[in-house]
Every structure is written in C-alpha cells, then in structure tokens.
C-alpha cells in the first residue's frame, strides 16, 4: 500500500488546542467494525460497553519535560532540544532545531523554565544518519533529575502555545492519571480521557485493568516519508511487559474474554510480544520496531480505544489495520469514520476526542 492512501484533509479548526474541561467528558465515536455502524457518545459512556471479564490494557509510561531551550555558545543563536532517549547519565540522543547544519563540537547553554540562563550546557558529540544528535551534558549531576526546572512539556507542534511553558494545565493534562514510569517524549494520548473514578467504575463492572510500558519516542510520532509502507522503517521504542500482566491477558484469550487496548502503543507492545512467541505473551522487556499496517492479523487485541490521528501517520495505519484484521479494507472504513467525525465537529489529535473500535 502507498503512504498517500492514508491521506485526508482536516480543517485547522478541528485540531484540538486544549483538552476537554473534564477528562471523561470528551466525545467518543463508537465504531462497529463488522457493520460500519457509528454511535456518538461521550467518553464516560465507554462504561456501557464494558463486559465482566474484559481486560483493559493501558500504557503507564510517564511523559518527561523533554523540551529544552538555550543558545549556541559560539553564535548566541537560539536552539531548541527535544530529548529522545537516554544512553547513560548526561548522555542523550536528541532532536535539535535548527539542526541541519549542526556539527559535532557545537555547544548549547540552556535556560530554565523561567527563561533565565543556567550553567547547564551540552555538546554535540555525534550525529546519526536519521538526523538525531547525541548530546553530552555538563555542569549538572544528572540532567534527568533537573528536567522539572529546565524542561517544558513536549507538546506536538500543532498544539500552539505563545510560550515554551504553555498553559498552566499542560503539565497535568498532557499526562495520564495512571502514568508511573518516566520516559516518554509524547503522551499515550488515548489514556488522557480516563479518570481514577472511571477506572474504578470499570473494575466495579467486573473488568480487569493491567498495565504495560512503552516509552513513546520517534517510532510513534515521526511521519512516514516513503512512497510505500514497506519502505518505512520504524524507530525503536523501549517496552516492558510484566509477567503478571502477560498471564492476565493470556488467561483472557484462553477463556475467550476480550482484551481492550487503550492506545496504539499498548497494541504495539502486545502484538510485538505475541508475534515473537507464537501468539502468546511472556513477561519481558526490550525494544520494538513493530510497524502495524493493513493487512495485519491481530493475535491479542479485540477492541481498541484510540484518538483521531494525523494523515499518513503510522498511528492511522495501525488503526486502519485493526478496523479489518488481515484485510486491506479497514482503511476506507476508518477514513469514512473520520469524515463522519469531521461532519460532527469532533476534535482531532493529541488533545482531541476518542474512538472506540469494537
């Protein structure tokens, strides 16, 4: 399939610039895969679709304040850094803007979240073919521990803010209520709609909730730039699947109970591990480059909660695969649902509304 097959046009006014006032009051489009039927609800109404024995799988990765601002010590030119992955203490792979002409040896001195210059600096020690720069931080014991005072929420570029620090609510709302393990540079956004109370109500209806961890990085949000899907290579992302969670999900599959993935990142963990273990899950940690697109035969996930995704993105391709497992017809079904969502003025992307695909 071609990347252009997953294109669509979205009015700019439908790109959500802020979250819903109350997490579980965002809108919910319910899509029945077999019939194409669409129902319009609010997110809290997901409770109407919970069955006793269902297993909800959520990604508990925590977003770090990964955006840093500073200036090049040689020229004074502005520089923005998006931390991507830690190699070791004070040694990180990162995206730099502007970054095309950056060479090893360039030094950046950073400002704190109040805009004041600090002693913390970083030197570019390497640049890889994908355009990432490897930074060695200085004058700080461990940059990871100082990100709360130096960094800002790594909001996607389509969420517009007048300042680096954004709105006061971004630090709280661009984070799931169950986030635990720090490491993501973008939120697993399907989980943003849940409240602690809603999770408790799901449990009270006889469903189980378990967690996986996938630290969202370039693999999730970098656009597909190749003409065909087969040519695209995903960036690696780190994941962790606890043995108890693996057993809970295996038991559900054995008993023919539903596994409901919250977000595409949860799907990628489950299906990556299953593909490597003959359709079953085992407790493990590792890295995945899984690129899920039509036709993909899902082994674990039976239902999916997800947001509305960017055109030609790997997320849209995954959702299209899930809409018709093992077939190529899911693309048209999803694009038709997106067209309906646009007619109904749903809010799109990270801070936007949600879909439940059954």
**Distance between termini?**
24 Å
Supply the CATH class of the largest domain. Alpha Beta
CATH fold annotation of the largest domain: QueA-like
Rg on CA atoms, Å? 20 Å
- Whole-number average pLDDT? 95
Provide the helix percentage. Answer: 10-25%
Poorly predicted tracts of residues? none
Explain the overall architecture.
- By secondary structure, this protein is α/β, with parallel strands linked by helices.
- The chain folds into two domains: 3-63 and 172-357, QueA-like (3-Layer(aba) Sandwich); 67-150, Thrombin, subunit H (Beta Barrel), CATH 2.40.10.
- Helix content is 20%, strand content 27%.
- The protein has eight helices and 17 strands.
- The protein has a nine-stranded mixed β-sheet with strand order 2-1-17-16-14-3-12-13-15. It has a six-stranded antiparallel barrel with strand order 5-6-7-10-9-8. Strands 4-11 form a two-stranded parallel sheet.
- Helix 7 crosses helix 8.
- The longest helix is centred in the last third of the chain and has 14 residues, at 330-343.
- The model has no long low-confidence stretch (mean pLDDT 95).
